[in-house]
Amino acid sequence: TPPCGNTFPPLMIISFDSFTVQCASMVLLGLGYTFNSGAAEALFYDSFELNGIANEYIKISGKIGLISGIIPIVLLGGIVGEYGFKLPFVITIVSYGILILITLFFKNTNPHPKESRRHLDFGYIKHLKSACHTILHNKFILYLAILYCLVSAVKMPIFLLVQTLMKEYEFTAWQFGAFQNGWGYVAIASLYFIHKLEKKIGGINVIFLSLFIIITCSLSVGIGNSPASILFVIPIASAVRVGLLMFSKELNIRIASDVRATTWSVINTVLEVIFLALHFSVSRLILQYSQQMIIFYIGITFGLAFVIIGVLLKISKNLDSEC
Q1: How much of the chain is in helix, strand and coil states, percent to nearest 5?
Q2: Mean pLDDT across the stretch 40-49?
Q3: What DSSP designation does 53 have?
Q4: To 10 degrees, the CA torsion angle through 120, 269, 33, 141?
Q5: Could you report the per-residue pLDDT of 275-288, keeping only the tens digit for each?
Q6: Would you say the C-alpha torsion 7, 187, 311, 282 has a positive or negative sign?
Q7: pTM above 0.90?
């Protein structure tokens, strides 16, 4: 369903000039992302479990992230766009068309099919309640999920505000593209070494290190008063990518396979609500404050949240260890 939902919107966009059709395409695109929410994450991790290599999740995921990030998508998109704005949409349609064919050969990766059938037998609503119960009644999963949502959410306003800040500092379009690709490559490259860091200090400590980097570098961008302060975005990008991958592993190993997809859907739904709230808040604040001041406020606000939830996470982990 997700590839279909992501294939038809671009086709509708390049085929019709009607505003109504454009709106319909966005609704269809949203449905595609909705069906993808949780399903892809569960499918990916279940595949590791099914093949007995779940302990290699971080290492292999890091390599996949490195390989997928080698192609400079931002630069290629700009070059292709020079030949016509519809061409990138055509490439997207072809890519997702191939993906649809590939998904036809996917196999059920659920290592516990009887448990899944049991949940399906008593209906989706109860299945959804079971997923919510998994989150709310396990404090460690709850705090991990909250931190995951916060880290996922904080990157959006920071990266958007940095873009406008670069324009204020009169960066050229070429410099902006090169810098954006640069911080993307550094972030992706850091994924290759994450499994080594995890072995040395542990997965939870990697998460705490990522949170510390995000907080300190966000504050550094906020209080900086020169183009050089934008360089702190590079470690932020790396910390976000590393943190999210580690969150993914720590959550997956604690969520049962039969409710994994639905649990991730619940988490991502909460994340989207946070995104909407941030979009609204930032759009209001930018009318009154500078980009750097808003980034500083974001660093303070999310920093306090990280510290509070991080302490609760550590306490719940210690309690689980004692039990």
Answers
A1: 85, 0, 15
A2: 76
A3: -
A4: -70
A5: 778 878 887 887 78
A6: negative
A7: no
